[in-house]
Design goal:
The protein has 512 residues and is of the alpha/beta class. Helix content is 29%, strand content 21%.
Length: 512
């Protein structure tokens, strides 16, 4: 039901306003006074409507309005920043409560498409008063940086997406700063970050720089920094900033847990510029990212031979890094190891103690044959089914291997018809088949299940024991859950003759 004015109410309002205006106009002939009078009448009418609507708002939201202002402000804090701004338009009471709590406006999160970014930033900085700030902002313009620079003493976390300079960040003390993250570069070929002494930001824990950097020579170490990333090299422009000299990095950051170093022009990198003071015992996570061929990574990894990293991520363009990876693994864990090759350019090697080495590369994928010299250290392998036929072209002996996982999608050709190689795996206990699951239709899924069955059956014919005799029965066959609704199909009958036990994940399906 729509509520509108009755004809009598409308006529009454009209007559009342007309009467006031007519009486006032009788006393003046100046147009300016007429305009002022009309404006005042409009203002009074708007205030009357606002007051009545406010009372109606208070009554309609009586439950919320009975909450203490502090509790109501806590409710507002559960909203995302954009929704908090909408709260101020609901009622004057809500607005007064929201504006009376500066901490509600201390979380600043802007992207490059934020309308009137500089105006919005200035408004939030004003509303936040003296509250500690958490800022995530796009700062390509000098207007944004000029607004933020004076606020550094009260900024707790600062994420800057794309910036022309980093010097403005260090102009003022940052006594509350815990996180400084600059994930994107404006022009990293020209950008240089000169780090101030540790007294600039005593509580700093995380520091991610978008450029080459200069470490402080005095002022003591950053004892609380656990995460650091930065660039070792630029593109090598003569008129650009010099490459990083990081040989004192571990002296400046003695309690690092995570280190990420990026290389662009690797020919300009020398081992003398790499961190060479004692490695922090706390350092558990290492990332080395080379835009070039990765030639700098091998000697860099050698610097930390014997250091027990928990995770290592290497990005490069060539597979020869398999050798330095395995060399480093031997220095901390002799084996057994677990190898996982993906269909893309990634391989993962794990130790028994869950130390993980990830290798990413552009171009051709990492191949199983690259691990030939360390086959006796492999306890399990996970490999894409479509890559097995190309790689298994000779007899390969893996004396300690106890588990093989084949991942889909599976090729439609029968494996044994095209494979000339054999796997000699005297200790093999488990073969696991994982068909692809992302299909748009039922027909595609059914075809994958048939291909998986045919491929698995053929693959078993290529497995032999020490004496070259083919494996008669697999001790354990494991199928992923996607096979469960197809396992009764006739094309899966072979599994009961070729396996001692068959499981679908943890559920036993068959045991001889």
């Amino acid at each position: 039901m729509t509520t509108t004015l009755t004809s009598q109410q409308r006529d009454g309002i009209y007559a009342y306003v007309a009467n006031i205006l007519s009486e006032s106009l009788n006393e003046t002939r100046h147009p300016r006074e007429v305009v002022a009078l009309m404006s005042e009448l409009t203002s009074v009418a708007q205030k009357a409507m606002s007051d009545v609507v406010e009372k109606w708002n208070l009554k309609a939201r009586s439950v919320l309005c009975r909450l203490p202002p502090e509790l109501l402000a806590q409710c507002f804090s559960w909203l995302v920043p954009r929704e908090r701004a909408k709260v101020t338009t609901v009622s004057r009471y809500f607005r007064s409560v929201a504006l009376a709590h500066p901490s509600l406006w201390a979380q600043i999160d802007f992207v490059s498409t934020t309308p009137r970014l500089e105006e919005s930033l200035a408004l939030l900085l004003e509303r936040s008063g003296r509250a500690p700030l958490d800022v995530n902002v796009y700062s390509w313009s000098t207007g944004v940086t000029s607004l933020l620079a004076p606020q550094m003493p009260r900024i707790r976390t600062l994420t800057v997406n794309t910036t022309r300079s980093t010097s403005w960040i260090f102009e003022h003390p940052a006594s509350l700063l815990e996180v400084l993250n600059i994930p994107e570069r404006g022009d990293r070929d020209w950008l240089l970050t000169t780090l101030p002494p540790s007294t600039w930001a005593p509580p700093l824990r995380r520091l991610e720089l978008p450029s080459v950097f200069i470490l402080p020579e005095a002022g003591g170490p950053y004892n609380r920094v656990t995460h650091f990333s930065g660039y070792m090299t630029t593109t090598g422009r003569r008129d650009g900033p010099a490459n990083t000299d990081a040989h004192t990095l571990f002296d400046v950051f003695p309690y690092l847990e995570t280190l990420k170093l990026f290389f662009r022009n690797e020919d300009e990198t020398t081992i003398e510029h790499m961190p060479n003071s004692p490695t922090p015992r706390t350092l558990m996570h290492l990332t080395l990212h080379a835009d070039g061929d990765g030639s700098v990574i091998a000697p860099t990894l050698t610097l930390w031979r014997g250091h027990p990293f928990r995770t290592v991520h290497l990005f490069c363009r060539r597979t020869q890094l398999v050798t330095p990876i395995l060399d480093h693994m031997r220095s901390v864990a002799p084996g057994p190891w677990h190898l996982e090759l993906s269909g893309s350019a990634r391989c993962i090697i794990k130790t028994e103690t869950e130390r993980v080495y990830n290798l990413y590369r552009d171009g051709d994928r990492v191949r199983f044959i690259h691990f030939r010299d360390d086959f006796d250290s492999l306890a399990s392998i996970t490999i894409p089914a479509h890559g097995v036929q190309d790689q298994l072209i000779e007899t390969l002996r893996l004396p300690e291997l106890h588990s093989i996982t084949l991942r889909g999608p599976f090729p439609s050709t029968l494996f044994s018809l095209f494979s000339e190689g054999k796997l000699c795996v005297p200790r093999l206990q488990t073969l696991r088949l994982e068909p692809e699951t992302l299909f748009d239709d039922k027909a595609g899924e059914e075809a994958e299940m048939k291909n998986c069955s045919r491929f698995g059956q053929g693959f078993l014919w290529c497995i032999s024991l020490d004496d070259g005799v083919r494996l008669s029965k697999l001790p354990r066959l494991v199928l992923s859950t996607t096979v469960s609704q197809y396992v009764r199909e006739k094309y899966w009958d072979w599994i009961y003759q070729r396996a001692v036990s068959v499981s679908i994940e943890g559920d036993l399906l068959y045991k001889a």
